Amino acid sequence: MEEFFQQLTNGLAVGGIYALIALGYTMVYGVLKLINFAHGDLFTYGAYLGLTLLTSLALTDRLGFAAGVLVLALMVMGLVAVLGAILERAAYRPLRQSPRLSAVVSALGASIFLQNTLMLIYGARFQVYPDNILPAATLNVFGLYLPLMRVLIVLASVLMMVALYLFIQKTKIGTAIRAAAIDQDAARLMGIDVNRVIMLVFLVGPALGGIAGLMVGLYYGQINFTMGWVYGMKAFTAAILGGIGNIPGAMVGGLLLGVVEALGAAYISIAWKDAIAFCVLILILIVRPTGLLGERVADKV
Amino acid sequence: MKQKVWALVAVLGLGIAAGAQAADTIKIGLMAPMTGSWASEGQGMKKIVELLAEQQNAKGGVLGKQIEIVTEDDGGDPRTASLAAQRLTTKGVAAVVGTYGSAVTEASQNIYDEAGIPQVANGSTAIRLTEKGFKKFFRTAPRDDEQGRMAAQTIAKLGFKKIAILHDSSAYAKGLADEANALLKKSGANVVFFDALTPKENDYTAILTKLKGANPDVVLFTGYYPEAGLLLKQKKGMNWAVPFIGGDATNNVDLVKLAGKEAAAGYYFLSPPQPQDLDTADAKAFLADYQKKHNELPPSIWAVLAGDGFRAVAAGIAGAKSTDGEKVAAYLHKDLKNFSGLSGAISFDAKGDREGEVYRLYKVDGEGKFVLQK
């Protein structure tokens, strides 16, 4: 039983990261019906920018741990958001009127471009975050091993997801995003600047992906220019699992995927972990083709 | 039909090779993972081979001609490798050095063989590569069965009884894990865990939690250094003190960086000697030159073995007094004995495998240094 709960917490920590990245996929899909394959690479940029800012500005030395990491997170979010907006402007907007497939190809191209740019700048070797930054405290709850950072990561992910949810549901801009997701032409007729809405989506989604990258870098310590691919695929899966286009769906899908992976590894086979996770995906899609929360079409973003 | 196409490619390749003979340079191909997840190995291979070629050219080249290195990227991927190999065969190379991963090399063997081009792999240790009867395939890397033997011996010598084996499903890691597993079971050891992780992930706590449940005395991990670094780091985070033994793919200076010094301390691995432990005068002089030029040590021994591949090829061409693939291969098989390579004496047996014991046991000390164990 103890091992079960340990595996559950292991899964939730991984799932929180998946969920944050999945939000970026799902928001873009909701508005544009486009799978932004470059999203995983924006996540990688978050990790690399975080490392560069952390080591060159020495934020945690000057401001202390909590304030330093907070400022760092804001800077990374801002920079990756700008990158996302540039990506939209350069790779997607020119293809807005083209068939959807062209935009998908453009997304794949952007992904390759971003990934290799990173390799040219930082080199192909693994980069490592300095390991004396995070408090290494480990909580011991009923014999479970819970590093403090892990708890913080899950809390931070949930906090950001809730904030995003409220932003989409309760604010005027959020309403505009939802309107554009339902029907772009009708939204335009109601006086909503759809281009600005799309730009906004490409600011918020990448910002969340970027912060996920920073968290992975801070917690796991090792980053590599190809890391966005694996995380991107998993997060994409999570988005579909939850019902793509649906924000709470991405959160549920991410956490569920993480937990299924961990429990599959624990009780069936480690080597078949991904196969198990994808079998679950297929089963869910057979029963609910729109994903877990995919039916509430009017809510989608 | 396919046969005919290959024959045509081979003829064309030979034709161009013959053309190259008439030209001023002798081209030697390098197939290396310049991109992808093994890119750091590939870039190290390229730096070493190019520096060696430069030095050889300064001494007058080979057969009175300058050597030109033609590099193709295999991306660390078998499909890309077969394309890279086809491109190299059409560029008139006399021989090819590379590549790193076993599955990647495997995808290119046929292509070079049919084109009549000798190939010297540097990092590919899978047994089957030299069991296929290719007459022009060589490797400067040792074979997995030798490493598997060493692993089983070492575990017995260190006195571990309950053994867990973890691989990453790659051809190399699984081969080594199977070999060690079979030998350990034969000698009556108790293998309590045998499974594979998924490489390129960041969180292995689920696997470590399961491993811990099996309660082994030692964990043999046969995969690569990025995963090994994370395993060590997360193992320490779990306050689990079990010793880890790794295979030669964890011999990379980045391992300690990835795991952190404290987590890496006490980690054992088997490997051919590291670049800085190479003790021949040749190797020392070359490493000094390399450090002067690139301001770092080569990333791993595998890159150095690519250098040895290049030197063997150059010696083969010089010895055979020809760039003809058959003659060079025959020379490498029969006449190249105890050739002074950077990683020690090089001789090839009839299969193209390197002769002699290569593996050593290393342990990471508290400073994060790899210390050769006696």
- Count of strand segments of chain B: 14
The helix tally of chain B amounts to: 13
- What is the typical, i.e. mean, pLDDT of chain A? 89
N/C terminus separation of chain A: 39 Å
- Please write the string of helix (H) and strand (E) elements of chain B: HEHEHEHEEHEHEHEHEHHEHHHEEEE
The third-level CATH topology of the largest domain in chain B is Rossmann fold
Task: Report the mean per-residue pLDDT of chain B as an integer.
Answer: 89
Give a concise summary.
The complex is a heterodimer of chains A (301) and B (374). Chain A is mainly α. Chain A contains twelve helices and four strands; from the N terminus they run αααααβββααααβααα.
How do the helices and strands line up, and which of them pair or pack?
The complex is a heterodimer of chains A (301) and B (374).
Chain A: H1 2-32, H2 39-57, H3 59-63, H4 65-92, H5 100-122, E1 127-128, E2 138-141, E3 144-147, H6 148-170, H7 172-182, H8 184-189, H9 194-220, E4 222-223, H10 227-242, H11 247-267, H12 273-287
Antiparallel strand pairs in A: 1-4, 2-3
Chain B: H1 2-22, E1 25-32, H2 39-58, E2 66-73, H3 78-90, E3 95-97, H4 102-115, E4 119-121, E5 137-139, H5 144-158, E6 162-167, H6 171-186, E7 190-196, H7 205-214, E8 218-221, H8 225-237, E9 244-246, H9 254-259, H10 261-264, E10 268-271, H11 281-294, H12 301-320, H13 325-334, E11 339-341, E12 344-346, E13 360-364, E14 370-373
Parallel strand pairs in B: 1-2, 1-3, 3-4, 4-5, 6-7, 6-8, 8-9, 9-10
Antiparallel strand pairs in B: 10-13, 11-12, 13-14
Helix pairs in contact in B: 2-12, 3-4, 5-6, 12-13
